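Run log, item B.
One chain of 97 residues. Sequence copied directly from the ordering sheet:
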Amino acid sequence: MDITTEATPAYIKDGLCQAAQDLREIADDNAAMRAEFESEGWSGLEQLAMAGDKIGAAYDSLLSLGEKFGLAEEVAAAYQANEMVGSKRTVTEVEGA
């Protein structure tokens, strides 16, 4: 997937979600390998577990970023329609209050 300056937020969101899915598959493979090694009596697999945790964190970050790009399209549509985005609660909340 090539992302250019003309890419829509939906296109970017799809790319991020696909990358997240690829990471999920890698994390699942990592967990399966770790379980297999442990079942064979291997020890000292902490680094493999840490790698799996980092892959999981990257997966979560990509999904979160994808959701934000999805919201960008809603914000752009609301701006073009000159409508409010969010709810009364999100508009009236004051940070730190």
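Observations after the first pass:
- The first helix runs from residue 9 to 39.
- The mean pLDDT is 83.
Flagged for discussion on Thursday.
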